[in-house]
Amino acid sequence: MLTDGLSVLFCGINPGLTSAATRHHFARPGNRFWPALHHSGFTPRQLRPDEERELLSYGLGITNVVERATARAGELGGAELRAGGRALEEKVRGARPRWLAVLGVTAYRTAFGERGAVVGRQERTIGGCGVWVLPNPSGLNAHWRPPELAEEFGRLRAAARVR
Predict the structure, then answer these.
(1) What is the pLDDT of residues 102-119, one digit of tens each?
(2) pLDDT score of 163 more than 90
(3) Which among 23, 27, 57, 163 is least buried, having the fewest CB atoms inside 10 angstroms?
(4) How far is CA 83 from CA 54, 87, 89, 139, in A?
(5) Among positive and negative, which fits the CA dihedral 127, 119, 105, 60?
(6) DSSP 95
(7) Residue 30 and residue 33: Cα distance in Å, rounded?
(8) What is the 3-state secondary structure (H, E, C) of the chain?
(9) Chain segment 65-111, per-residue pLDDT in tens
(10) DSSP label at 49?
């Protein structure tokens, strides 16, 4: 879901098997993307994965670094992530969102060769687009609890001046 001039383009690592089967982003039950998006104020209510097209009305979109579906993002190799990072840069240059939000610091580090990157705003820009790294919202990422995820999403929302 990508169109020109979005406020924020959210970028997952790659589709999980449930997302691939349903053809909707962050579709696995237990994924915390949709709750974090809502609780941070990006959306007025919690959307379901099958309602993802509604994001466009809020100036938001979704894509992935890598299009290949896997059971776990850890199944992706470094070369595949780096190739995905290059393709993502081209998407961003073409669509020109104001912000790119990559969901997963480890994948971001590999895809963009930024070994020291941390969650938050990055110094890197892509064709004038700001870059923000968010925690991976997968339920497997127990390191970040739901309130902390929503808080970090909220920092991006404030920086992006969305509503």
Answers:
(1) 999 999 999 999 999 999
(2) no
(3) 57
(4) 29, 6, 10, 26
(5) negative
(6) H
(7) 9
(8) CCCCCCCEEEEECCCCHHHHHHCCCCCCCCCCHHHHHHHCCCCCCCCCHHHHHHHHHHCEEEEECCCCCCCCHHHCCHHHHHHHHHHHHHHHHHHCCCEEEEECHHHHHHHHCCCCCCCEEEEEEECCEEEEEECCCCCCCCCCCHHHHHHHHHHHHHHHCCC
(9) 998 877 777 788 889 999 999 999 999 999 999 999 999 999 999 99
(10) G
Sign of CA dihedral 63, 88, 59, 116: positive
CB 151 within 8 A of CB 37: no
Active centre residues (catalytic): 14, 25
CA-derived radius of gyration, the chain: 14
Q: Which has the higher per-residue pLDDT, 69 or 144?
A: 144
CA distance 67 to 15: 7
Mean pLDDT, range 150-160, rounded to an integer: 93
Cα–Cα distance measured from residue 18 to residue 60, given in angstroms and rounded to the nearest whole number: 22
Alpha carbons 64 and 155: distance in angstroms, whole number: 21
CB atoms within 10 A of CB 162: 18
d(Cα 150, Cα 42) in Å, to the nearest integer? Answer: 10
Whole-angstrom Cα distance, residue 70 to residue 55? 24
